Structure formats: structure tokens, C-alpha cells
Amino acid sequence: MLSLGLLFGQDVAPLPLNPDPMDEEWVTAVPLLDDDTAEEVGEEEAPADAELLVPRDQTRVAVLGYHNFSKTAPVTQMLMRTSDFRAQMEYIRNAGLKVISMQEFLEWRLGTRELPARCVLITMDDGWRSVYTDAYPILHEYGYPFHLFLYTHYLSGRGDSMSPAMIREMQQHGASVGSHSASHPYPRAWKAAAAAGPEAEADMIDKEIGATFPKLSELFGTINTYCYPGGYVTPAMLERLPGYGCAAAFTVIPGKVTCSEDPMQIRRYMIFGNNHSIFKNAMDFRVAQLGTAATTGATPGTLPASTPLPPFPVHPVPNSTVTCDFGAISADMSEVAGVDISTVRMKVSGFGRVPAVVNSNTRSLQWTPPCRIYMPHISVLVTWKSTTGTSHKAEWTFCIDPYATTPTQSK
């Protein structure tokens, strides 16, 4: 793991959200707005008046997270084609969705404001210069507010980073600012601090998180939001964040935000340059809660105890407990007779239908999550048709323990 022992103002570029990039063999990006988009997202459900206010508990917010942009460079998870970003902003407008500011979001959360039923909050992580050169002109053109999550060691204005002057200019035209830590540490660094004891962990939290609030507030005005680098969150962080003046903290767990969930673990769709299906899931407001795309249990990500086990090997093993780094979700259907391999599909709670890669030779499918998953319960649904046209499905669940070191099998 590359160390981020940086000095303020040093000319460096931030590490990507996931330090272990997805194996390109398993990446299958779908077109941004293909022929099925209108049906999947439900454009016909757009209200006639996107400004129509509803009771607080009827509002759902899709929080979008972006990183870097380019008009010409090859796309990656963290780098999006500028033209694709414009197309997404255009889609939001055409779908009749209300783009809200962070201030409006916080007021809604606190109960002092009502919003339309379907809202979008746009966030940008790290402080890449391309946010200023590529994304900002588009956002300004559409009149969309947006929120910058900055880490303080990446504010030099040199190389690929933005300068404080650029950020202050954007603040005059819809931008607001939150903290993304001091040096963008990854889970290994946090785990090492925790292993050294509670005092060492608290000291790191104070330096990496707490110290950024007054520093950024001095530069850009009052800071009261935070997003976890890599989505890594611990009980000690949750305990100390309110003391820094933090009113809301954001994860990388996808799902619509309601007014009732934990303000220190707000869900967010990380929009990747090489996987447009995440944006499509974010724009689908037909599902109210996390996990229901592949869930029939009372708790998001769970299934009834009577659900039969899959008739083929799967990973993770049904009812097992795994770490956040469990790898891919896969199914081996090689021993299932009469499968029309072209009809095999996979849905994962919190993500909806995912771009699983199906190997017709081995009759297996595999999907690698684009980020570490910290949801405690995950359900998976695999559907297919037989060569005679009969529909079939297999479902299973597994649990994630973010503090576990080795997978365990439930009894």
C-alpha cells in the first residue's frame, strides 16, 4: 500500500478510491443511455413540477460521488469522460429531478425544510483540477449546486490539484466545501492505528479528521460535512465526528437517502467512469430502500429463513460472514442442465442489476464490486431461463464484518 505521508501543499495526486483496481477482464460497462434506460429508470414517472414539495418522509435523495474528468484520457473507475458527465447532467434535467445544495440537504435532514420527492445531491471527492476545468463549467451551465470533499494535503494548485483560489471562485457559483481528511489514508493505516490502542486511534482521528475542519473553515468558511476516504468508517470515528462540528458524514454505500437514517453514515452512489450502470441505478427512484432490488426479508440485504440454497456453488458461501475484501461474487452453473447462458442475470442488494461477466465456456458468472462494501447484510439473486423457456432463480445471503480478519462460516 502506498503511504500518504504528505505535507500541506505538496504537488501530489490522490490515490483512487479503491487501491486495488478491478481486473479489466471482469469490467463490463453499459452504455450511458441505452435503449432500455427509459424503461429501467422510469422517465414517464417524472413529475410535472419538480419543485413540488412533499412531507419530509416522502423525499428520497440520490447522493452522487464523482472524482476526476477528462475529455481525452482513457476512462477508469476514478476518471470519467467529460462528455459522459454532461450527458448525466442532461439526463437529470430531462428526468425532472431536483438538484439540491448541501445546505438544503442538511436543512431537510434537520427538519427545517421540505423538498420534492426525488432529489439529487452532487459531490466531488479529492480536489482534482479537472473538477474546475471540466465539471464546473457544465454544472454552472445547468445551474446545479455541488459539494467538494477536499483533503487538505491536496490543495496546492500544482499538477492535477485545484488551488484555494479556484475553489473560492466556484463557491461564488454553487459550490460548497466539506472535509475528506488530511492525507486520504486507506484502511490499512486506520487498522494499524487501532491495533496500537484506543489512544493512538483517537490521535489519528484528531489529526486526519478533526484538524481539517478548522483548516478548511479558515480557507472556505464553516465546514460541517465529511466523507470517509475509501468508505472506511469505525465506531471511534462515529463517536468523535460530532465533536468536530460535523453534521453529516458520507459513505460509499449505494442507496437512496431518507430523513431517518444515521447522519454519520449517509449513503452515496460512487459514479465510475467505466461503469455507467451505477448512475442508472441512482436515477431509479422506483425502489425506496437499500437492498430491495434483491431482497424479500424485513431487513435490507436479507432473505426469509425458508429461502432454499442455490443448486450450485456460489461465493461468498451462503450464510457465511466475510471481510470487506471478500473479492468477487460468483456462481458456478456448470452442473446445471439446460441453462440458456445468454439469459443469466445477477442482482445484488444495494446495487440492483450488476454487470456480471458470464463465461459461456465454464458456464459461470462473476461480479467484482467497484468498492469495498460495508453493509452488514448482502443478498444475491441469480436468474436464468432453461433452453425450454422456463424461468429459474437462485438466492442467497451473506454477512460482512468490517472488523473481521478471516472469513467465518455461520452455523
Briefly say what this structure is.
The chain is of the alpha/beta class.
What do you see in this structure?
It is a single chain. Helices cover 23% and strands 22% of the residues. The longest helix is centred in the N-terminal third of the chain and has 14 residues, at 129-142. Strands 1, 4, 5, 6, 7 and 10 form a six-stranded parallel sheet that branches. Strand 5 (118-126), helix 4 (129-142) and strand 6 form a beta-alpha-beta unit. The chain is α/β, with parallel strands linked by helices and 411 residues long. It has helices spanning 37-42, 82-94, 102-110, 129-142, 164-171, 187-195, 198-210, 212-220, 235-240, 277-282; strands at 60-66, 68-70, 79-81, 98-99, 118-126, 146-150, 175-179, 225-227, 248-250, 269-270, 314-315, 320-322, 329-332, 339-348, 352-353, 357-359, 364-367, 377-386, 391-400, 408-409. Helix 6 runs antiparallel to helix 7. It has two domains: 24-288, Glycoside hydrolase/deacetylase (TIM Barrel); 314-409, Sandwich (Immunoglobulin-like), CATH 2.60.40.1220.
- Shape type: globular
Q: If classified by CATH, what would the architecture of the largest domain be?
A: Alpha-Beta Barrel
The assembly state of the depicted protein chains is: single chain
Which consecutive residue ranges, at least 5 long each, have pLDDT under 50?
Answer: 1-48, 287-293, 406-411
Specify the number of helices.
Answer: 10
In total, the number of strands is 20
Number of domains: 2
Radius of gyration: 21 Å
Secondary-structure-based class equals: alpha/beta
- Mean pLDDT across the residues is 82
Largest sheet: 6 strands, parallel
Helix content: 10-25%
Topology pattern, helix = H, strand = E: HEEEHEHEHEHEHHHEHEEHEEEEEEEEEE
CATH C-level label of the largest domain: Alpha Beta
Question: Which fold name corresponds to the CATH topology of the largest domain?
Answer: TIM Barrel
CATH superfamily of the largest domain: Glycoside hydrolase/deacetylase
Question: How far apart, in Å, are the first and last alpha carbons?
Answer: 35 Å
State which percent range the strand residues make up: 15-25%
